[in-house]
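re: ur question from yesterday

yeah so i grabbed the chain u mentioned. its 69 aa long if i counted rite. heres the sequnce exactly as i have it in my notes:
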Amino acid sequence: MYPNIDAERARKGLTVNELVKQLGVCRKTYYNWINKGKIPREKLEQLADIFSVSTDYLLGLTNPYGKVS
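ran it thru and got these C-alpha cells back, copy pasting raw so excuse formatting
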C-alpha cells in the first residue's frame, strides 16, 4: 500500500530489523502499516525524519520533489 516507505528504507540501506528498532515497533506492526495502512501520525513523522522526505511522499500523495503525483 505504501511502496515509497519500503523504497526509502532500501535507499537508506536499512534492514527491516534496523528500521523497526529505530521506530520502537515489531516487524509485524511495520508490515501491517506497509500493507494495510493506518500508520500513526507520530510514526509517520518519525519515518519522514529518518528518510528526510515528506509525509505526503511516503503516503504516495506527491513525488520526492513535492509535486502532486
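noticed a couple things. The chain has a mean pLDDT of 91. also The radius of gyration is 11 Å.
anyway ttyl
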